[in-house]
Design a protein that fits this description.
Blueprint: H1 2-26, E1 41-48, E2 51-57, E3 61-62, E4 65-66, E5 77-83, E6 88-97, E7 113-118, E8 121-129, E9 141-148, E10 156-157, E11 174-180, E12 186-191, E13 200-204, E14 217-218, E15 234-241, E16 244-253, E17 264-272, E18 284-287, E19 299-304, E20 307-315, E21 340-346, E22 373-377, E23 383-384, E24 390-398, E25 404-420, E26 425-434, E27 440-448, E28 455-460, E29 466-476, E30 484-494, E31 503-512
Parallel strand pairs: 6-22, 22-25
Antiparallel strand pairs: 1-2, 2-5, 3-4, 5-6, 7-8, 8-9, 9-10, 11-12, 12-13, 13-14, 15-16, 16-17, 17-18, 19-20, 20-21, 23-31, 24-25, 25-30, 25-31, 26-29, 26-31, 27-28, 27-30
Length: 514
C-alpha cells in the first residue's frame, strides 16, 4: 500500500505541475483542445445539430499514461469531442476501435473520418493496418466503412471486410475523406495506403455510401518543389470556396541547404477550377512547421455557423509541452515517441483568394486564449480505462488488439475527472477479466468525487479463467449519479499473498436514466 501511495503522489505532483505550466504557456501561445491530458491526432471536423464535432485518432494514451507509439502502431481508436464555444469541450470517448473489424491483422487504426450523415445514419471511413504489427514499419492499410445510428457511435463494420474497387480488389488507402460536388453527389478521396507511395485517388460513392460507383481516378497533385524535394506526401483534403477548389496536403521537406525552405512538416495547398484538378498551380503554405518540424502535421477543414475552421495536430513534445513538465511522473518514458495534440483555429480567406498562413507556435486558436475546459461524457459508448487522471495500486498492460487493460489490486482505484451524468445514470457496464483463481469477494465499487465518496454502485467480480477472457458486467446506479462529478472505480477483494492482481478493466460506460 505504501508503494502504491507513493506512486499516486508522484503521479499527481507531475500532473499538477504539467497542468500549471500548460495553462501558463497557453496564455500567449498555441491553444490546444486537451492540454495536459488526452493525446489526439489526425483531426477532421463538421457541424452537426448546431455543435462543432471534432473527430480524431488517438495516440496512446494520455499525459498520465504515455505509451510507446513507434511507427504509429499504438493508435487504437477514433475519438470525438464537441463544443459550441471552443472553450468548453466534451470528450465522447472511443467511437470505434481496432476491435471493430475482424479483417485487420496489424491492430493500428489510422487517419480517417466519421460522423458523415447520409441515409438516416452516420458513416465512418477508417484505414486499418493489414500487415503484422510485429513488422517494424509504417505498414499497409485498407479502408473500411462503418455505420452508426448517431455520430457518437458505436460504429459497426458495414461490409465485414474492407471496401473494394469495382474489380474486386481491397481498397488500399489512407486519409479517406468524403467530398461533395456542386450537385451534392458524394465522392471518396484518399491517399496511398503505403507511405512509400505518394498518389491520390477519387471515386464517386454509390447511394448506399459503402461501395464505389466507379473505378478510381487518379488526381494530379504536386510532386516536387522548387528544390527538387518531394512535395505531396499524404493527407489529401479537398474543399470548395466560391467557385474554386482548394486541395490541401501534408509535405515533409528535408534539409537541402541555402536557398531552400527550412526542413519540416508543412500543410500546403494549391487551387483548381474543378474538384478533379489538375492541382498543378502555384503551391502555397497554409501551416508552417512547429520548431524543427520533425513530427507530422495533419489537417481537417469544416464550416461552423457560417465560418471556416481548420483543425490540425502538432507534436506533444513541441517546445511548449516539454517532457520536463512531467519529469516527476513515472508514467513517462523519454524513449517513447509520436504523441500529438490538436488545435482548432480560424481559416481566413484573403482578398486575393489565398488562405492566411498559420504559424502553430503563435496560434492562439479560436475561443478564449488559453482556455480549454474538458468534461467527459459519462454516456460515451466506450471509455478506455487507461484514460485515467489519477490511479493508485493499479497498473497497465497491453491487451489483445492495441487497447490497454488496467490491473487492479485490493484498494486500488482509477479516477476520471469531470464526468457529466446529466439528468442521471441508470446503469453501469464494465469489461473485466481475471486469471486469479485465489480471488475471493472480488468487487468493483463506483464512487463519486473521490475514492471514499458516495457509493452509487457495486459489481461482484469472479475469475474469468484468463487475463484476456473478457466479460461485460452491469449493475444499476443510484440516483445520486447526476450532474458533474469525478468518478472513482475502486477494486476490492482478497487473494493469496503472491497474487497482487485481482482483476483487469479495459473499458466502461454508463446508460442514461431515461
Amino acid at each position: 500500500m505504501s508503494s502504491g501511495m507513493g506512486q499516486f503522489t508522484r503521479a499527481a505532483r507531475g500532473v499538477l505541475v504539467g497542468i500549471a505550466l500548460v495553462v501558463a504557456g497557453n496564455l500567449h501561445g498555441q491553444k490546444l483542445v486537451t492540454p495536459g491530458y488526452l493525446f489526439n491526432s489526425d483531426p477532421t471536423c463538421r457541424e452537426l445539430n448546431g455543435r462543432f464535432y471534432l473527430f480524431t485518432t488517438q495516440d496512446p494514451f494520455t499525459v498520465q499514461a504515455e505509451r510507446k507509439n513507434a511507427f504509429y502502431k499504438g493508435m487504437f481508436a477514433f475519438h470525438v469531442l464537441s463544443t459550441t464555444d471552443f472553450d468548453h469541450w466534451t470528450d465522447h470517448g472511443s467511437i470505434l476501435t481496432s476491435r471493430d473489424v475482424t479483417w485487420d491483422t496489424g491492430n493500428a487504426l489510422w487517419d480517417g473520418d466519421a460522423g458523415i450523415p447520409a441515409n438516416g445514419q452516420f458513416y465512418s471511413y477508417a484505414p486499418y493496418r493489414i500487415n503484422s504489427a510485429s513488422e517494424q514499419n509504417y505498414g499497409i492499410f485498407d479502408i473500411g466503412v462503418l455505420t452508426a445510428d448517431n455520430p457518437l457511435g458505436p460504429y459497426k463494420d458495414a461490409l465485414g471486410g474492407p471496401m473494394a474497387t469495382p474489380d474486386g480488389h481491397p481498397l488500399e488507402g489512407l486519409s479517406p475523406w468524403v467530398v461533395y460536388n456542386d450537385d451534392h453527389v458524394p465522392y471518396l478521396l484518399w491517399g496511398a495506403g503505403d507511405t512509400s507511395k505518394n498518389w491520390v485517388k477519387m471515386a464517386r460513392l454509390a447511394p448506399d455510401m459503402t461501395h464505389l460507383a466507379e473505378s478510381p481516378r487518379d488526381v494530379a497533385v504536386p510532386k516536387k518543389d522548387a528544390c527538387g524535394r518531394l512535395d505531396y506526401f499524404e493527407s489529401p483534403l479537398l474543399f470548395e470556396i466560391g467557385k474554386k477548389w482548394y486541395f490541401t496536403y501534408v509535405v515533409y521537406k528535408e534539409d537541402k541547404g541555402p536557398g531552400c525552405e527550412p526542413k519540416g512538416s508543412y500543410i500546403d495547398y494549391t487551387v483548381a477550377d474543378s474538384m478533379f484538378g489538375p492541382f498543378d498551380g502555384p503551391i502555397h503554405h497554409l501551416i508552417y512547421p512547429f520548431g524543427d518540424g520533425d513530427e507530422s502535421m495533419q489537417q481537417g477543414v469544416c464550416s461552423y455557423k457560417g465560418k471556416l475552421f481548420i483543425a490540425y495536430h502538432v507534436p506533444y513534445d513541441n517546445g511548449q509541452l516539454l517532457r520536463a513538465q512531467i519529469a516527476t511522473s513515472e508514467f513517462t518514458d523519454a524513449t517513447q515517441d509520436h504523441h500529438r495534440q490538436v488545435a482548432v483555429t480560424a481559416l481566413t480567406v484573403l482578398s486575393d483568394g489565398t488562405l492566411q498562413p498559420i504559424y502553430p507556435s503563435r496560434d492562439q486558436g479560436v475561443g478564449t486564449p488559453g482556455v480549454s475546459i474538458l468534461t467527459l461524457d459519462a454516456f460515451a459508448p466506450r471509455r478506455e480505462a487507461i484514460e485515467f487522471h489519477a490511479r493508485m495500486n493499479a497498473w497497465d498492460e497491453a491487451g489483445v488488439n492495441g487497447e490497454y487493460q488496467m490491473m487492479m489490486g485490493d484498494g486500488g482505484y482509477l479516477q476520471y475527472n469531470n464526468l457529466d451524468f446529466g439528468e442521471g445514470a441508470k446503469s453501469f457496464h464494465v469489461e473485466i477479466s481475471s486469471d486469479n483463481p485465489t480471488m475471493r469477494n472480488g468487487a468493483l465499487e463506483i464512487h463519486l468525487d473521490n475514492p471514499a465518496g458516495k457509493l452509487v454502485g457495486k459489481i461482484m467480480v469472479e475469475s474469468t479463467g484468463g487475463r484476456m477472457n473478457y466479460r461485460t458486467l452491469t449493475t444499476d446506479v443510484a440516483s445520486q449519479a447526476r450532474g458533474i462529478h469525478n468518478l472513482c472505480l475502486v477494486a476490492r477483494g482478497n487473494a493469496a499473498p503472491t497474487e497482487q492482481r485481482l482483476f483487469n478493466i479495459t473499458s466502461f460506460g454508463f446508460t442514461r436514466n431515461k
